[in-house]
Each structure stands twice: as structure tokens, then as C-alpha cells.
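Help needed: design a sequence for this.
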């Protein structure tokens, strides 16, 4: 006899598909759902359905939104002379949390990865050129990974012939870190990108 009922076993299996969720965490989540009231479980199920039914991609910036165009693209207070290019919607959320950036975004929907068969046609790259009319600066905010660097290099070459400044996010030592514990690549980039004080 199986110790876990089939329906609970299926729920555990579904939770294991979430990023960073192993079997034990999936089991804890499933038992949490089981222990909660039916109303809370139905609210969770409704929230999941709503996300899948209501959220789409903005036709201008490709960020997630319930409207098209999204609230950022239609906000008259945004600086339309600056366009920040990011990998995905989570990057937009992270940058917005800083309250430092007031420009527009362009979400690529991934990064170039020739080894995985992800080329320029698989991403929202072609749309960038269509959005440059009032743009003076394009900020490349891709991750400092091999794929992020490849994408930034590709975009830099693509935008070189356009009348626009291209910048890259600064990279270096995180606040609160000790120099002796920083990896060589990060330390080298920090030395390259040093600023006069």
C-alpha cells in the first residue's frame, strides 16, 4: 500500500517542477496546501489560473502585463530617451525596486546561447531597432555570464551604426564584501571599471 495518496503525490510532483524546489520542499508545500482550509487552496488555484489567463506580454517592451501596452510604456513620466535592455521580467522588477531608473525597458526573453541553439531570431532583438526614434542611450543590463556577455557584445555591434550611446551596467565588488574573498574575474572587472573619486 502506498503511504501517500495519489492526489497528494501528484501535487508533490508538480511542486518539484518549480525552480529550486527539491523533493522534500515539494512535500512540505503539498502538506501545507493540504493542512490549509479549502478556501485558501481554492484561492491559490484561482491565483495560478489568473496568472495564466490575464498576464500577457507588452507589444512594445515585451514585459509582462495585464494591459497592452504596459503601464511602464504608457507612463508619461518615464524618460523616453533611455532604454534599458534586460533578459526577462524579473530583471525589470529588480531594477524598478531600486527607484533609481525612470526610463523605458526592452525585455529580450532570454539570452543568446549558440550551444543551446538560441540565436537572435529566438529573442526580442529585432524590436530594439524599432524603438530608437527618441532614444539617446541604450543600457545593456544583461547578466555577467557567458550568455549575457555574448548578448551584450552582439547588441553593441548591432547598435554601433545607430545614433545612440550604448552603456553597460557597472560590475565589480558587491557592497559589504571583503576583497580577499572576491573571485579573480570579479576583481579584474572591478579594477577595469574603477572610477576617480
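Sure. Designed sequence:
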Amino acid at each position: 500500500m502506498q503511504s501517500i495518496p495519489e492526489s497528494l503525490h501528484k501535487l508533490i510532483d508538480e511542486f518539484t517542477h518549480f525552480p529550486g524546489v527539491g523533493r522534500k520542499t515539494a512535500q512540505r508545500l503539498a502538506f501545507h496546501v493540504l493542512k490549509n482550509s479549502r478556501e485558501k487552496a481554492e484561492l491559490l488555484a484561482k491565483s495560478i489560473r489568473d496568472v495564466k489567463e490575464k498576464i500577457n506580454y507588452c507589444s512594445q517592451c515585451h514585459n509582462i502585463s495585464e494591459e497592452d501596452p504596459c503601464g511602464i510604456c504608457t507612463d508619461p513620466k518615464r524618460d523616453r530617451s533611455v532604454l534599458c535592455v534586460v533578459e526577462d521580467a524579473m530583471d525589470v522588477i529588480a531594477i524598478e525596486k531600486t527607484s533609481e531608473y525612470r526610463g523605458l525597458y526592452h525585455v529580450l526573453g532570454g539570452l543568446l546561447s549558440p550551444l543551446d541553439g538560441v540565436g537572435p531570431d529566438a529573442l526580442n532583438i529585432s524590436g530594439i531597432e524599432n524603438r530608437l526614434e527618441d532614444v539617446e542611450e541604450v543600457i545593456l543590463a544583461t547578466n555577467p555570464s557567458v550568455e549575457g556577455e555574448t548578448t551584450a557584445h552582439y547588441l553593441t555591434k548591432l547598435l554601433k551604426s545607430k545614433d545612440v550611446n550604448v552603456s553597460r551596467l557597472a560590475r565589480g565588488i558587491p557592497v559589504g564584501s571583503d576583497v580577499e574573498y572576491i573571485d579573480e574575474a570579479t576583481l579584474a572587472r572591478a579594477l577595469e571599471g574603477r572610477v576617480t573619486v
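The domain at 77-168 is CATH 3.40.1360.10 (Dna Topoisomerase Vi A Subunit; Chain: A, domain 2).
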